[in-house]
Amino acid sequence: MHILLVEDDSMLADAVCDGARQNGWTIDHASDAAAARLRLLDGAYSVMLLDLGLPRESGLSLLKTMRARYDVTPVLILTARGQLSERIAGLDAGADDYLVKPFQFDELWARVRAVIRRSQGRVIPLLTCGEVQLDLGKRVVTRAGVRVALSAHEYRTLLALLERPGHIVTRDYLHEMVYGGASAIESNTIAVFIHQLRRKLGDNIITTVHGQGYMIEGGDA
Hints:
Blueprint: E1 2-6, H1 10-22, E2 26-30, H2 33-42, E3 47-50, H3 59-68, E4 75-79, H4 84-92, E5 97-100, H5 105-119, E6 126-129, E7 132-135, E8 140-143, E9 146-148, H6 152-162, E10 169-170, H7 171-179, H8 189-201, E11 206-209, E12 213-216
Parallel strand pairs: 1-2, 1-3, 3-4, 4-5
Antiparallel strand pairs: 6-7, 7-8, 8-9, 10-12, 11-12
Helix pairs in contact: 6-7, 6-8
């Protein structure tokens, strides 16, 4: 089992991580939504433990973004916000379960196991454009049924484009998705990834919209 914990309280995060490892599980920790988003792009998780009261961007916003992007990672919300309206908002946004702080760790692990059991057999969507297909569950890209090896940055670039078929995706947005908003990145790096994707997947898959960004035509999500 591979868990992603999104929690800005370092003491609680350390305790949860220690408990997960004692159960024999692998766990990664992100202290804010931006770090969590990059973690989700880089690896598949059995479950996410998500705090709502994160700095800069709320956990609820992160969850809504995940579901809008077809990310079906099971999510267990951990928060001090125990009001009924808060629980309803989290569940309506796509959470699988909700646990109010403070909690007993035995209950946390029982809920984690239950969420994962319920998620088994869940259909994972595919993003396609012509012969190109991206399997979100396996994080595999194929062209005419043949697997294509992409770097992590190339995968993130392709994913951002396939999520918005027929729409212009700006360079700034691609930079955010690929690097999580990190500064000091050379201005031509996105163009390099686009060039590599065209070389591997076909020259016509990505259209350059001069002065605006890039676009994939007519994909099916």
